Amino acid sequence: MTALTTPARTTARSSPAVTPPSGPRRSATRRRWFVAAVFALPALLLLGVLVVYPMLFSVGRSFFDATGTRFVGGDNYTEMFRDPATLKAIRNSTIWVVVAPTLLTGLGLILAVLTEKVRWATAFKLLLFLPMAVSFLAAGIIFRLAYEEDPDRGVLNAVAVGVHDTFQDSSSYPTARARDGQGLAKASDGSFRTTGEARPGRTVTLGLVGVQPDELPAGAAPARRGASAAAAPDELRGVVYLDFTPGGGGEQGKVDAKERGLPEVAVEAVSDDGKVAARATTGADGSFRFADLAAGSYELRLPAENFAPPYEGISWLGPALVTPAVIGAYLWIWTGFAMVLIGAGLSALPRETLEAARMDGANEWQIFRRITVPLLAPVLTVVFVTLVINVMKVFDLVYIIAPGPVQEEATVLATQMWLVSFGGGQDQGLGSALGVLLLVLVVPAMLFNVRRFRRSQS
């Protein structure tokens, strides 16, 4: 039997041939890559010289001592967290990161929503954005002057003093003092008290010095008139006067013709048991009168409120308030930035959603809280993280606004890094370690922002 074998029919699939680019096309591609490299090379060189090389050099330098000759390993990083000044800088930087971006994002959101309902919204946004055109150096000088404690120079304390003096009278005689051996002595609480006894039926003269004649109240009258008044048997009279005769002359401890009384001075009659039996206020000629006093001896007292120093305002740049004061300057600069970015996101919101909510009966607060804020969450996050990155690197404002004696109270990581490296510490190993710490803190926020941008573009 003959086996008939049918040869298997093989069908070969022909794959499309890949033709390499022809000569002209290949040369055009190479030319495009060459042009791109030429244009990117300057930027890459600058990036390498100004960013990559300093970063790598700082990382390496942080493992050496102050002279840069001896390898110390991680000693600088250990010392960094043992140094009280560095710990204070970390604390202040934490306050900055928590407070400044939160306030700026909140202010920017509120202003962006409100400016939508303002007729001159563009002009208002321009005014708020103008501080961004001011350098941090100029802004620091402006606020350093604004925070001056002297009310004649610092505008904020001028306002504070004006408001304080409107609601509370200040003393007219802060520099007054008593002459030694003239019947008045200063007590530990700042008041003046008579050294002798005063009884009803007498007239007492209480002379003070230390007040310039041109600083007397406009209505101050001659004191002789009050000193010559006779007292009834049940009353005690007296006069508080400036024991100084303009032009010289006169007798100490006695009221002369040219000497003037001190008006609006509070006087108290204190009985033997230490209780205030009567209280009076001097008139234009400095005279006072206690009527219907019980028989006995009294001590006359001029309370310390008569001689309290004038209110000088708030110590904005003192140890307690210097960090909030610098943060206030930062808010003035960056509020417009946050408002403009959030306003751009607000203008892109779907208006039909907002109108549908109004038609369903929602009020403006409900729309803001339940619709506007959730829809703006991506924009608010980007603004917040951007401000966090910026806040971590703040240097100019802290260095310029904070005075030298309180510089350590206001220092942040950036200023501490400079002070340790160049501002007197001369320890660039420890300063480089601080720089690496700052880089480690900033990089995660930067990566988060980059991921948000990529996600919004996809």
TrEMBL record:
It comes from Streptomyces flavidovirens. Pfam families: BPD_transp_1, CarboxypepD_reg. PROSITE patterns: ABC_TM1. Belongs to the binding-protein-dependent transport system permease family. Residues 90-449 form the ABC transmembrane type-1 domain. Keywords: Cell membrane, Membrane, Transmembrane, Transmembrane helix, Transport. It is found in: Cell membrane. Residues 1-17 have a biased composition (Low complexity). It is a multi-pass membrane protein. InterPro entries: Ig-like_fold (IPR013783), MetI-like (IPR000515), MetI-like_sf (IPR035906), UgpAE/MalFG_permease (IPR050809). This is ABC transporter permease subunit. The keyword Oxidoreductase does not apply. The keyword Protease does not apply. The chain crosses the membrane at residues 33-56, 94-114, 126-147, 329-350, 371-389, 429-450. Residues 1-26, 171-199 are annotated as: Disordered.
